Amino acid sequence: MSELSLEKNYYLLVLDIKKSTSMPPEVRTAVFDKLQKQVAQLNKTLDPQPVRALSLAYGDEVAGLFETPAQLYHIVSTLRQAIYPQGRFRFAICLGKVGIVADELRSVGGAVFKEADVRLKRLKKQGGFGVWSTQQPQQDAVLNALISMSNLIFERMTPYQRQVFELLSAGHSGKEIAAKLKRYPQSVSRAIQTGGAEEVVKAAELIEDILIRKSQPTQGLLNKP
0.90 cut: is pTM over it? Predict the structure, then answer.
């Protein structure tokens, strides 16, 4: 576990499960079982490790603290895939200082937690999926636009289109997807085109590129020569 500093800025990721209290008991159990297993797996495999590991808090939130944003959208995408469509969430990623040095994430507090709380409440009212607040307004605007666009397309996909999208985003070709799903290649091609899978994959790639560059302060996307 890394040492915290009150002088440094950290990236806080908070995911809030939507309508968790109104889920039927069996659905809620299934969603949170999947969520806990995926969180545990991410905590084992993330490199570099979070400053404070991903954990479930307050019954319906997942949170983690990070030194760089490079892996944050990968985490969001992985957790969404783990629980969708039974469960959905909204998320906020904020940059700021912590309040105290503590091993337990929820004991840390500070400005970055207050910012995430404000952003999530606003997001809930707006019905949005995700928001970035990382002290770089231009980059945040780009990230927020990409998130909004890609989530809108994702939510409109049929179950079959989502299957195709998930395999496409994992790097499989159209022929490989057809073989895995036992479909004609023409059917897969049509699902990619009508479902917008390529657009969502491209948006994710651009988001990842921005986050990698944000992890290298001298090479910010909007300052690229």
Answer: yes
